[in-house]
Amino acid sequence: MPPTAAPGATAGRLDPEILRLPFYEPHHLGLARRISRWCEELKPAPDGEDPRETGRRLLRALGDAGLLAHLDPDAAEEVRRDGDFRGLCLVREALARTDDLADFAFSVQVLAALPILRYGTAEQRRRHLPGMAAGRTSGSFAVSEEQAGSDLAALALRAERVEGGYLLDGAKTWVACGSTADLHCVLARTGEGPGLLGLTAFLVPADLPGLHTEQVALTAPRSLATLSFDRCPVPESSVLGRPGGGAVIALDTLARARMTVGAAALGFARCARDAALTRARSRPMQGGRLFDLDTVKAGFADTEVKLNAAALLVARAAWEADRAAPGFARHSSIAKLYATEAAQQVVDACVQVFGAAGLVSGSLPESLYRQIRSLRIYEGASEVQRAIIAEVLAPAGPAHPREGR
Protein backbone atom coordinates (compact mmCIF):
# COMPACT_ATOMS: atom_id res chain seq x y z
CA MET A 1 0.00 0.00 0.00
CA PRO A 2 1.43 3.43 -0.87
CA PRO A 3 2.11 5.77 2.05
CA THR A 4 -0.48 8.47 2.54
CA ALA A 5 1.83 11.11 3.98
CA ALA A 6 2.33 13.99 1.58
CA PRO A 7 5.89 14.66 0.39
CA GLY A 8 7.63 17.03 2.76
CA ALA A 9 4.81 16.87 5.32
CA THR A 10 5.38 15.83 8.92
CA ALA A 11 3.53 12.52 9.23
CA GLY A 12 0.72 12.69 11.73
CA ARG A 13 1.15 16.41 12.41
CA LEU A 14 -1.89 17.89 14.16
CA ASP A 15 -2.89 21.53 13.71
CA PRO A 16 -1.26 23.42 16.63
CA GLU A 17 -3.82 26.24 16.36
CA ILE A 18 -6.67 23.78 16.91
CA LEU A 19 -4.83 22.18 19.83
CA ARG A 20 -4.56 25.58 21.53
CA LEU A 21 -8.35 25.92 21.68
CA PRO A 22 -10.05 25.60 25.10
CA PHE A 23 -11.56 22.28 24.01
CA TYR A 24 -8.26 20.57 24.81
CA GLU A 25 -6.42 19.90 28.07
CA PRO A 26 -2.70 19.35 28.76
CA HIS A 27 -2.98 15.57 28.51
CA HIS A 28 -4.36 15.94 24.97
CA LEU A 29 -1.24 17.87 23.97
CA GLY A 30 0.94 15.07 25.35
CA LEU A 31 -1.09 12.49 23.43
CA ALA A 32 -0.78 14.61 20.26
CA ARG A 33 3.01 14.57 20.61
CA ARG A 34 3.06 10.80 21.21
CA ILE A 35 0.91 9.91 18.22
CA SER A 36 2.84 12.32 16.00
CA ARG A 37 6.13 10.65 16.93
CA TRP A 38 4.65 7.21 16.31
CA CYS A 39 3.39 8.28 12.89
CA GLU A 40 6.75 9.79 11.97
CA GLU A 41 8.46 6.47 12.69
CA LEU A 42 5.87 4.32 10.88
CA LYS A 43 7.28 2.54 7.84
CA PRO A 44 5.18 1.77 4.74
CA ALA A 45 3.85 -1.76 4.36
CA PRO A 46 6.02 -4.07 2.26
CA ASP A 47 4.97 -4.23 -1.38
CA GLY A 48 2.39 -6.92 -1.97
CA GLU A 49 1.61 -7.54 1.70
CA ASP A 50 -1.93 -8.79 2.28
CA PRO A 51 -3.96 -5.94 3.89
CA ARG A 52 -5.18 -8.42 6.50
CA GLU A 53 -1.61 -9.15 7.58
CA THR A 54 -0.81 -5.44 7.50
CA GLY A 55 -3.76 -4.80 9.78
CA ARG A 56 -2.65 -7.47 12.26
CA ARG A 57 0.89 -6.10 12.30
CA LEU A 58 -0.27 -2.52 12.79
CA LEU A 59 -2.65 -3.52 15.58
CA ARG A 60 0.21 -5.20 17.43
CA ALA A 61 2.38 -2.11 16.89
CA LEU A 62 -0.34 0.16 18.24
CA GLY A 63 -0.67 -2.08 21.27
CA ASP A 64 3.09 -2.19 21.84
CA ALA A 65 3.19 1.62 21.74
CA GLY A 66 0.48 1.88 24.39
CA LEU A 67 -1.92 3.62 22.02
CA LEU A 68 -4.68 1.12 22.86
CA ALA A 69 -3.89 0.87 26.58
CA HIS A 70 -6.91 3.00 27.49
CA LEU A 71 -9.13 0.04 26.53
CA ASP A 72 -7.99 -1.84 29.64
CA PRO A 73 -10.39 -0.92 32.47
CA ASP A 74 -7.65 -1.68 35.00
CA ALA A 75 -5.20 0.78 33.44
CA ALA A 76 -4.10 3.81 35.46
CA GLU A 77 -6.32 6.87 35.35
CA GLU A 78 -3.83 8.89 33.32
CA VAL A 79 -3.76 6.10 30.71
CA ARG A 80 -7.55 5.79 30.52
CA ARG A 81 -7.81 9.56 29.96
CA ASP A 82 -6.25 9.04 26.54
CA GLY A 83 -9.42 7.17 25.62
CA ASP A 84 -11.71 10.17 25.97
CA PHE A 85 -13.31 11.20 22.71
CA ARG A 86 -11.11 14.22 22.18
CA GLY A 87 -8.11 11.89 22.45
CA LEU A 88 -9.63 9.29 20.11
CA CYS A 89 -10.33 11.97 17.52
CA LEU A 90 -6.77 13.30 17.69
CA VAL A 91 -5.34 9.82 17.22
CA ARG A 92 -7.64 9.01 14.29
CA GLU A 93 -6.83 12.30 12.56
CA ALA A 94 -3.09 11.71 12.88
CA LEU A 95 -3.31 8.07 11.77
CA ALA A 96 -5.54 8.79 8.77
CA ARG A 97 -3.18 11.55 7.68
CA THR A 98 -0.34 9.04 7.78
CA ASP A 99 -1.58 5.56 6.86
CA ASP A 100 -5.06 4.33 5.94
CA LEU A 101 -4.68 0.85 7.41
CA ALA A 102 -3.23 2.14 10.69
CA ASP A 103 -6.36 4.25 11.18
CA PHE A 104 -8.52 1.29 10.13
CA ALA A 105 -6.88 -1.06 12.66
CA PHE A 106 -7.13 1.47 15.49
CA SER A 107 -10.71 2.55 14.78
CA VAL A 108 -12.19 -0.95 14.45
CA GLN A 109 -10.48 -2.08 17.65
CA VAL A 110 -11.94 0.87 19.55
CA LEU A 111 -15.37 0.33 17.96
CA ALA A 112 -15.35 -3.33 19.04
CA ALA A 113 -14.11 -2.62 22.56
CA LEU A 114 -16.40 0.32 23.32
CA PRO A 115 -19.60 -1.73 23.89
CA ILE A 116 -17.69 -4.12 26.17
CA LEU A 117 -16.30 -1.20 28.16
CA ARG A 118 -19.74 0.37 28.54
CA TYR A 119 -22.04 -2.64 28.84
CA GLY A 120 -19.92 -5.70 29.64
CA THR A 121 -19.94 -7.53 32.94
CA ALA A 122 -16.82 -7.46 35.08
CA GLU A 123 -16.00 -10.97 33.83
CA GLN A 124 -16.46 -10.00 30.16
CA ARG A 125 -14.26 -6.94 30.56
CA ARG A 126 -11.60 -8.94 32.39
CA ARG A 127 -11.65 -11.73 29.79
CA HIS A 128 -11.50 -9.65 26.60
CA LEU A 129 -10.23 -6.11 27.13
CA PRO A 130 -6.63 -6.62 28.33
CA GLY A 131 -5.83 -8.54 25.13
CA MET A 132 -7.55 -5.91 23.02
CA ALA A 133 -5.61 -3.16 24.81
CA ALA A 134 -2.35 -4.99 24.03
CA GLY A 135 -3.27 -5.37 20.35
CA ARG A 136 -3.05 -9.16 20.67
CA THR A 137 -6.81 -9.81 20.54
CA SER A 138 -8.64 -8.17 17.65
CA GLY A 139 -12.33 -7.38 17.55
CA SER A 140 -15.14 -6.52 15.16
CA PHE A 141 -18.55 -4.87 15.47
CA ALA A 142 -20.95 -6.95 13.35
CA VAL A 143 -24.24 -5.13 12.78
CA SER A 144 -24.97 -4.66 9.05
CA GLU A 145 -26.81 -7.18 6.90
CA GLU A 146 -27.37 -7.36 3.15
CA GLN A 147 -31.00 -6.22 3.41
CA ALA A 148 -30.62 -4.09 6.51
CA GLY A 149 -27.71 -1.68 6.35
CA SER A 150 -28.69 1.28 8.52
CA ASP A 151 -32.15 -0.05 9.45
CA LEU A 152 -31.55 -1.91 12.70
CA ALA A 153 -35.24 -2.76 13.02
CA ALA A 154 -34.94 -4.90 9.87
CA LEU A 155 -32.06 -7.08 11.11
CA ALA A 156 -32.81 -10.74 10.50
CA LEU A 157 -29.94 -12.77 12.03
CA ARG A 158 -31.71 -14.96 14.57
CA ALA A 159 -30.57 -16.17 17.98
CA GLU A 160 -32.69 -19.15 18.97
CA ARG A 161 -32.91 -19.79 22.70
CA VAL A 162 -31.77 -23.30 23.68
CA GLU A 163 -30.71 -24.89 26.93
CA GLY A 164 -27.60 -23.11 28.20
CA GLY A 165 -27.50 -20.43 25.53
CA TYR A 166 -28.43 -19.60 21.94
CA LEU A 167 -27.97 -20.81 18.36
CA LEU A 168 -27.13 -18.10 15.80
CA ASP A 169 -28.54 -18.52 12.28
CA GLY A 170 -28.07 -16.06 9.42
CA ALA A 171 -25.39 -13.67 8.20
CA LYS A 172 -23.72 -10.34 8.77
CA THR A 173 -21.87 -8.53 6.01
CA TRP A 174 -19.52 -5.59 5.46
CA VAL A 175 -17.96 -6.41 8.83
CA ALA A 176 -14.75 -4.41 9.28
CA CYS A 177 -11.91 -6.74 10.30
CA GLY A 178 -14.42 -9.60 10.07
CA SER A 179 -11.85 -11.93 8.52
CA THR A 180 -9.13 -11.19 11.08
CA ALA A 181 -11.04 -10.62 14.34
CA ASP A 182 -10.73 -13.00 17.28
CA LEU A 183 -13.96 -11.72 18.81
CA HIS A 184 -17.13 -10.38 17.18
CA CYS A 185 -19.74 -8.19 18.85
CA VAL A 186 -22.86 -9.40 17.01
CA LEU A 187 -26.39 -8.01 17.00
CA ALA A 188 -29.05 -10.72 16.59
CA ARG A 189 -32.82 -11.05 16.90
CA THR A 190 -33.97 -12.83 20.06
CA GLY A 191 -37.58 -11.69 19.87
CA GLU A 192 -38.22 -9.93 23.18
CA GLY A 193 -40.33 -7.48 21.18
CA PRO A 194 -40.92 -6.17 17.66
CA GLY A 195 -38.32 -4.28 15.66
CA LEU A 196 -35.60 -2.70 17.78
CA LEU A 197 -37.00 -4.24 20.96
CA GLY A 198 -36.17 -7.78 19.85
CA LEU A 199 -32.41 -7.37 19.39
CA THR A 200 -29.64 -8.65 21.66
CA ALA A 201 -25.88 -8.14 21.51
CA PHE A 202 -23.57 -11.14 21.79
CA LEU A 203 -19.81 -11.56 22.19
CA VAL A 204 -18.91 -14.34 19.75
CA PRO A 205 -15.40 -15.86 19.54
CA ALA A 206 -14.29 -16.31 15.94
CA ASP A 207 -13.37 -19.99 16.40
CA LEU A 208 -16.84 -21.27 17.29
CA PRO A 209 -18.25 -24.12 15.19
CA GLY A 210 -20.82 -22.98 12.65
CA LEU A 211 -19.20 -19.59 12.07
CA HIS A 212 -17.65 -19.01 8.65
CA THR A 213 -16.05 -15.90 7.14
CA GLU A 214 -15.68 -14.77 3.55
CA GLN A 215 -13.50 -11.85 2.53
CA VAL A 216 -15.20 -8.94 0.70
CA ALA A 217 -13.08 -7.06 -1.85
CA LEU A 218 -13.19 -3.25 -1.60
CA THR A 219 -11.97 -0.45 -3.85
CA ALA A 220 -9.52 0.48 -1.07
CA PRO A 221 -7.98 -2.78 0.22
CA ARG A 222 -9.07 -3.38 3.79
CA SER A 223 -10.16 -6.38 5.83
CA LEU A 224 -13.92 -6.61 5.27
CA ALA A 225 -15.92 -9.83 5.50
CA THR A 226 -19.26 -11.58 5.51
CA LEU A 227 -19.92 -13.70 8.61
CA SER A 228 -22.21 -16.71 8.11
CA PHE A 229 -23.74 -18.43 11.14
CA ASP A 230 -25.05 -21.98 10.77
CA ARG A 231 -26.62 -22.88 14.10
CA CYS A 232 -23.56 -21.44 15.79
CA PRO A 233 -23.78 -22.14 19.56
CA VAL A 234 -23.08 -19.31 22.00
CA PRO A 235 -23.44 -19.66 25.77
CA GLU A 236 -25.69 -17.55 27.96
CA SER A 237 -22.59 -15.77 29.26
CA SER A 238 -21.98 -14.32 25.79
CA VAL A 239 -24.94 -11.93 26.05
CA LEU A 240 -23.69 -8.35 26.26
CA GLY A 241 -25.91 -6.18 28.41
CA ARG A 242 -29.39 -7.66 28.72
CA PRO A 243 -31.55 -9.67 26.31
CA GLY A 244 -33.54 -7.23 24.17
CA GLY A 245 -31.11 -4.39 24.88
CA GLY A 246 -28.97 -4.79 21.79
CA ALA A 247 -30.38 -1.84 19.87
CA VAL A 248 -29.50 0.54 22.69
CA ILE A 249 -25.93 -0.77 22.70
CA ALA A 250 -25.57 -0.46 18.93
CA LEU A 251 -27.08 3.03 18.68
CA ASP A 252 -25.06 4.33 21.61
CA THR A 253 -21.82 2.88 20.21
CA LEU A 254 -22.41 4.30 16.73
CA ALA A 255 -23.31 7.74 18.09
CA ARG A 256 -20.00 7.88 19.95
CA ALA A 257 -17.97 6.54 17.03
CA ARG A 258 -19.30 8.94 14.39
CA MET A 259 -17.30 11.96 15.48
CA THR A 260 -14.12 9.88 15.22
CA VAL A 261 -15.00 9.08 11.58
CA GLY A 262 -15.15 12.83 11.05
CA ALA A 263 -11.69 13.12 12.61
CA ALA A 264 -10.31 10.48 10.24
CA ALA A 265 -11.87 12.31 7.29
CA LEU A 266 -10.09 15.44 8.46
CA GLY A 267 -6.79 13.55 8.47
CA PHE A 268 -7.31 12.30 4.92
CA ALA A 269 -8.28 15.81 3.81
CA ARG A 270 -5.19 17.40 5.38
CA CYS A 271 -3.00 14.84 3.62
CA ALA A 272 -4.68 15.66 0.30
CA ARG A 273 -4.33 19.41 0.88
CA ASP A 274 -0.61 19.07 1.69
CA ALA A 275 0.03 16.99 -1.41
CA ALA A 276 -1.90 19.39 -3.63
CA LEU A 277 -0.06 22.40 -2.20
CA THR A 278 3.32 20.79 -2.85
CA ARG A 279 2.27 20.04 -6.41
CA ALA A 280 0.80 23.49 -7.10
CA ARG A 281 3.82 25.33 -5.68
CA SER A 282 6.34 23.31 -7.68
CA ARG A 283 4.64 22.80 -11.04
CA PRO A 284 5.51 25.43 -13.71
CA MET A 285 2.48 26.98 -15.39
CA GLN A 286 2.18 29.91 -17.84
CA GLY A 287 5.50 31.45 -16.85
CA GLY A 288 4.86 31.04 -13.13
CA ARG A 289 3.56 28.32 -10.84
CA LEU A 290 0.28 26.45 -10.92
CA PHE A 291 -0.50 27.96 -7.52
CA ASP A 292 -0.32 31.49 -8.99
CA LEU A 293 -3.48 30.96 -11.05
CA ASP A 294 -6.43 32.75 -9.45
CA THR A 295 -8.74 29.77 -9.86
CA VAL A 296 -6.24 27.49 -8.13
CA LYS A 297 -5.78 29.95 -5.25
CA ALA A 298 -9.55 30.16 -4.84
CA GLY A 299 -9.74 26.37 -4.62
CA PHE A 300 -7.13 26.27 -1.87
CA ALA A 301 -8.98 29.02 0.02
CA ASP A 302 -12.17 26.94 -0.09
CA THR A 303 -10.22 23.94 1.15
CA GLU A 304 -8.82 25.92 4.08
CA VAL A 305 -12.33 26.96 5.12
CA LYS A 306 -13.53 23.35 4.96
CA LEU A 307 -10.60 22.05 7.01
CA ASN A 308 -11.13 24.64 9.73
CA ALA A 309 -14.89 24.07 9.88
CA ALA A 310 -14.45 20.29 10.04
CA ALA A 311 -11.81 20.55 12.79
CA LEU A 312 -14.03 22.78 14.91
CA LEU A 313 -17.10 20.58 14.48
CA VAL A 314 -15.14 17.45 15.42
CA ALA A 315 -13.57 19.14 18.45
CA ARG A 316 -16.93 20.38 19.68
CA ALA A 317 -18.61 16.99 19.23
CA ALA A 318 -15.83 15.23 21.14
CA TRP A 319 -15.95 17.83 23.90
CA GLU A 320 -19.72 17.43 24.19
CA ALA A 321 -19.35 13.63 24.46
CA ASP A 322 -16.61 13.89 27.09
CA ARG A 323 -18.75 16.11 29.28
CA ALA A 324 -21.75 13.79 28.74
CA ALA A 325 -23.90 16.56 27.27
CA PRO A 326 -27.45 15.33 26.49
CA GLY A 327 -27.21 16.48 22.87
CA PHE A 328 -23.80 15.04 22.04
CA ALA A 329 -25.22 12.53 19.52
CA ARG A 330 -26.52 15.33 17.31
CA HIS A 331 -23.13 17.04 17.35
CA SER A 332 -21.47 13.72 16.54
CA SER A 333 -23.71 13.36 13.47
CA ILE A 334 -23.06 16.97 12.43
CA ALA A 335 -19.30 16.48 12.69
CA LYS A 336 -19.38 13.19 10.80
CA LEU A 337 -21.64 14.52 8.04
CA TYR A 338 -19.74 17.74 7.40
CA ALA A 339 -16.22 16.37 7.75
CA THR A 340 -16.73 13.35 5.50
CA GLU A 341 -18.55 15.30 2.78
CA ALA A 342 -15.95 18.08 2.91
CA ALA A 343 -13.07 15.59 2.83
CA GLN A 344 -14.48 14.00 -0.31
CA GLN A 345 -14.46 17.44 -1.95
CA VAL A 346 -10.91 18.22 -0.77
CA VAL A 347 -9.56 14.91 -2.07
CA ASP A 348 -11.34 15.44 -5.39
CA ALA A 349 -9.75 18.90 -5.61
CA CYS A 350 -6.36 17.30 -4.95
CA VAL A 351 -6.84 14.94 -7.89
CA GLN A 352 -7.78 17.94 -10.04
CA VAL A 353 -4.59 19.81 -9.10
CA PHE A 354 -2.50 16.77 -10.05
CA GLY A 355 -4.36 16.36 -13.32
CA ALA A 356 -3.71 13.12 -15.18
CA ALA A 357 -0.94 12.27 -12.70
CA GLY A 358 -3.60 12.09 -9.99
CA LEU A 359 -5.37 9.29 -11.83
CA VAL A 360 -2.38 6.97 -11.96
CA SER A 361 -3.07 3.76 -10.06
CA GLY A 362 -1.19 3.72 -6.76
CA SER A 363 -0.43 7.44 -6.75
CA LEU A 364 -1.21 9.36 -3.57
CA PRO A 365 -4.24 11.26 -4.98
CA GLU A 366 -5.69 8.08 -6.52
CA SER A 367 -5.20 6.13 -3.28
CA LEU A 368 -6.81 8.88 -1.22
CA TYR A 369 -9.72 9.02 -3.66
CA ARG A 370 -10.45 5.33 -3.06
CA GLN A 371 -9.83 5.49 0.68
CA ILE A 372 -12.02 8.49 1.48
CA ARG A 373 -15.19 7.28 -0.20
CA SER A 374 -16.18 4.72 2.41
CA LEU A 375 -16.22 7.26 5.26
CA ARG A 376 -19.47 8.76 3.95
CA ILE A 377 -21.05 5.33 4.57
CA TYR A 378 -19.33 3.94 7.70
CA GLU A 379 -21.22 4.31 11.00
CA GLY A 380 -24.31 5.53 9.17
CA ALA A 381 -24.42 7.05 5.68
CA SER A 382 -24.69 10.80 5.16
CA GLU A 383 -28.42 10.44 4.52
CA VAL A 384 -28.83 8.79 7.93
CA GLN A 385 -26.91 11.63 9.59
CA ARG A 386 -29.17 14.21 7.96
CA ALA A 387 -32.22 12.36 9.27
CA ILE A 388 -30.77 12.28 12.81
CA ILE A 389 -29.94 15.99 12.72
CA ALA A 390 -33.33 16.95 11.30
CA GLU A 391 -35.15 14.85 13.90
CA VAL A 392 -33.93 17.20 16.64
CA LEU A 393 -35.81 20.01 14.90
CA ALA A 394 -39.10 18.09 14.96
CA PRO A 395 -40.47 18.88 18.47
CA ALA A 396 -43.46 21.19 18.38
CA GLY A 397 -42.75 24.87 18.89
CA PRO A 398 -43.39 28.29 17.38
CA ALA A 399 -43.26 28.14 13.59
CA HIS A 400 -41.45 31.50 13.58
CA PRO A 401 -39.34 33.15 16.29
CA ARG A 402 -41.81 36.10 16.43
CA GLU A 403 -44.86 33.88 16.68
CA GLY A 404 -46.78 34.29 19.92
CA ARG A 405 -45.32 37.67 20.79
Query: Topology as H/E string?
Result: HHHHHHHEEEEEEEEHEEHHHH
CATH hierarchy class name of the largest domain: Mainly Alpha
Q: Mean pLDDT across all residues, rounded?
A: 92
Number of domains: 3
Main sheet: which strands, in order across?
Answer: 1-4-5-8
Instruction: Determine the strand fraction and express it as a percent band.
Output: 5-15%
- Kindly report the name of the CATH homologous superfamily of the largest domain: Butyryl-CoA Dehydrogenase, subunit A, domain 3
- Counted beta strands: 10
End-to-end distance: 62 Å
Contiguous runs where pLDDT drops below 50 for at least 5 residues: 1-12
Number of helices: 12
Overall 3D geometry?
globular
What is the CATH-assigned architecture of the largest domain? Up-down Bundle
CATH fold node name of the largest domain:
Butyryl-CoA Dehydrogenase, subunit A, domain 3
Radius of gyration: 22 Å
Largest sheet: 4 strands, mixed
Structural class: alpha+beta
